[in-house]
Amino acid sequence: MQCFLVFKLNYSQISLTLSYFQPVKLLPYLLLPLSFLYGLGIYLRNLAYNNRWKKGKKLPVPIISVGNITVGGTGKTPMAEFLLEHLLSMGQRPAYLSRGYGRSTRGYLRVSAAAADGMRFGDEAFQVAHKFPKIPVVVCEDRVAGVKRLLSESEVDVVVLDDAFQHRRIHRDLDIVMVDGSRLPAKDWLLPAGNLRESRRGLHRADFVAVAKRPPGQSAAALPALVEAERYGFKTTVFDLKPVGVYHFFSEKVISIAELQGQSAHLFAGLGNNRFFFQQTAKLLQEKRSETAFADHYLYQKNDLEKILANLGPPNKNKPKFDGAIILTTEKDYFRLKSLPWIGDFSEFPFYYLKVKIVPVAGWKCMDNRIMQIIRTYGRHQ
Fold first, then answer.
1. Torsion 99-108-129-367 (CA) sign
2. Residues 6+ apart with CB under 8 A from 209
3. CA 353 → CA 105, 286, 291, distances in Å?
């Protein structure tokens, strides 16, 4: 009570008093009652499925789900892309389906990479469609209805669902849960006080927990214990996000990772975990000039990029405005910006995006064997 009284009289005094111990963020504690109610609702819903009072709909093709138990930025879409590429290499006919988070439409839509307005589908599905133009890419909030319609339209052997761990209305043959190695769920709280979409107990439904975005020095061998694999009964795989190149927004120009080491850049991103992008990219650069963070799935406005340019400062004869530096963002942000009607107004500026791919570090063979086993069980879909 004394702290609140001091706060009203002098803000600097409360800051000093609290910092004597450690920084205290009051808002998460104030939100804990809401987290309890949210958790109770999730618990009752999961209880219904766990006791088979409600059942997931089984479909005639294998369903591989890539999901998470935290909001934002765990590497789901890179993992889905890795699985699609692997399934193609096996001679399978895969398809990709997500709800199309952040899109401007609703219902079932077939994603076209040639579409003028990518926000009709959401940035992640639009990105996947560009990378895999020959496979069906679909968005639909109702995964069961979406897969049924997809199978009626296309010859598909296996469906990869993006962000479906909590969507239990559809039966999954393989549940992969992505975990951000720099933000482990054991240190988090339920929404809205924290970032957990459900309790860590939900991990017992996972077949594999795939850890990506490891912080520097984090051992792959230590991760099963850190994500409580033995406690919840899942297998652990470890992946790294590997940068593969930097691509210009408006041309075919590419900067290799080796060339990037002599490059300066101003960074911006709208991810669930901007910090990881900023830290990872800074290590690749000669110099990080600045960084600007936006919310996950942020819908950019023209003045956002204008502000980034304005913050770089005015040019002069001795120091040009960019001075050889580039403006660098993520591939996901690029696809969010790509189809906006005003993006061409910035074609004279050095806007680039970093492309990454996910690569297995440990435990992949076990997951691959499980995938092959599931595919053999179903056979080729007619």
1. positive
2. 176, 177, 178, 179, 203, 227, 229, 234, 235, 236, 237
3. 26, 17, 14
> Are the beta carbons of 189 and 70 closer than 8 angstroms?
no
CA atoms within 13 A on the CB side of 135: 28
- Rounded to 5 degrees, φ, ψ at 158 are -155, 140
Q: What is the mean pLDDT of each run of 10 residues along the chain (382 residues)?
A: 38 36 70 95 96 95 96 91 97 97 93 90 95 97 97 97 95 96 89 94 95 87 88 92 95 92 93 92 91 94 94 57 83 94 94 96 96 90 62
Q: Indicate the CATH number of 63-241+360-378 among 3.40.50, 1.10.287, 1.10.3470, 2.60.40.
A: 3.40.50
Q: Model pTM?
A: 0.89
Cβ count near 283 (within 10 Å): 10
* DSSP H helix total and E strand total for the chain: 14, 13
C-alpha–C-alpha distance, residues 70 and 179, integer Å: 8
DSSP codes, 145-162? HHHHHHHHHS--SEEEEE
User: By the 8 A CB rule, do 358 and 212 touch?
Assistant: yes
Cβ(77)–Cβ(124) below 8 Å: yes
